[in-house]
Amino acid sequence: MTDKGSIIYLEGVTVDYDGFKALNNLNFIVDYNELRVVIGPNGAGKTTLLDVICGKTKPAAGRVIFGKDTELIGKREDEIVKLGIGRKFQAPSIYANLTVWENLDLSLKRLSKGVFPTLLGSSTQAERIKIGDALETIGLNDVAQTRAGSLSHGQKQWLEIGMVILQDPSLLLVDEPVAGMTDEETEQTGMLLQSLAEKHAIVVIEHDMEFVRQIARIVTVLHEGTVICEGPVEKVQADDRVREIYLGRQKVHA
Amino acid sequence: MSENHELHLRERGDIGMAFWVTGFVLLVLLPLLNVLPPEDSWLHFSDFSLNRFGKFLAFAIVALGLDLIWGYTGILSLGQGVFFGLGAYCMGMHLMLTIGKESVYGSELPDFMVWNQVKELPFFWKPFYSLPVALLGAILVPTAFALLFGFLAFRSRIKGVYFAIITQATALVAWLVFNRNETNLGGTNGLTDFKQLLGFRLSEPGTQRALYVLTVLCLGGAYLLCRWIIRSRAGKVLIAVRDSEQRVVFSGYTPANYKLFVFVVAAALAGLAGLLYVPQVGIITPAQIGVLPSLEMVIWVAVGGRGTLAGAVLGAVSVNLGRSVLTNYFPELWPFILGGLFVTVVLLFPDGLVGVGRRIGEQWPHISRRVSFIMPATKG
Do B2 and A132 touch (CB under 8 A)? Predict the structure, then answer.
């Protein structure tokens, strides 16, 4: 991608749940080809931030601009998907009763996803190659014909990442991808996200500081719905306010 | 990789042996056993049995549609009886009008209208003089109703137990409306005493045999249609909606449209079943379209095994066969047997008869091994 400037631009976004401000006048900017990690204690508004971008939650105030000048507020979730924003949920959200291949096939970007084109459509060679490539990327080649419900937890997470990248999004939102993974799986996930970052802008929400250090270039720290610190991992970890927030909650390894 | 996949698809693309065997038995063997052997032969399949089977197979068509929406898409509809009833009443109205002066009161009007002192045929009855209108209506009226109902329900994102409740409420409303004499559809007694269809006497075994064959053909067609849908990519979307609707939305689909589609197909199939049911059974009353019959339809699918088309057919036929055998012996116990069957299936055999069969198939090597292990051990 050769575009310059920001792919997603949030300005003064406030989300109000009956008086509780999940996001409070939040400003958040991610550039093209960036891999951004968002950290913060529970309730800091990390998931709400993703919900706002993908249209699941409507903010009370603020602007959300995708790319050059596309306002996302007021758009439906499926419209936002079509614009090129893909989302990987925190809990693996896959189709347990379909095979890995079928999971990927349904997720593939196609001209129309209406009922009748989908009913009559068949896969082209090009589409099969794309799915094959995605299987390669996420390392699930050997289990392509396995029912997705019988995959391991880590494999399910990778499958969902594969499903999201087949939508060919320019922005990928990834919510806690390594929660519940073994150390080995975590490391593989880190490599996967880094390789994806070559082609897509990615926003990752994460708790696991080890993992954050593995993948992060720029880290944004959220607290009580606003950004309190942003910068390279070392700078963020040295920040006094960040230490204060995490003190007694989760140890930030030096 | 992709080669592997194609192979896999081709393998599943074949219509199973079971389809052709079942088709042969239903379409050729049973009618032949009805016609050829003399009536006192043990091989003879009586007119009564053939007609009864025709009714079961009409029910199987409803079950196929319900399986699409419930088994595959995960949306429980407790109102399929309404669509069945709409189809049945459309056909029934035509059959009422073809009675003509053969009726008890000798009037051109249906008997119940004479009884209710209706002097003139209500306007909405008039088109049903035409058989094509009745046939089309039996499919299109339920379709249109499902389209409107489904549009409103799915747009408002009504799901799960709420959808089940409003469909059940609809079944209750339909029952109340069809029961009223003012509706001019025969009230509690419904439509009955039919004489002929296209000039063929409905009391003739030959006519009933033809209706039976027609029902088998329609069931075969309905099966192939459902099979085509579930094997298409759209069919996978239906399963995906059941597994993770949120992901479906974020993959760029609009689940409401898929739900509406499958709900309408299910309604059209129920209407077709109603159409085939009426001339074979000879009566349609509100009692056959209300809350209880709608619930029974769900039980057929649950017993047979939801999420498999064969299961839906098997369930509809076996539960109804069970009912007609058991009601001969313990008529008042049937509701308890049916309820017990449902609870048992839901708790112990969630995949129904088909699932039990599959499990036995999978377990058989283990069971036989264990038995051969135990046997010598007990000797020693």
Answer: yes
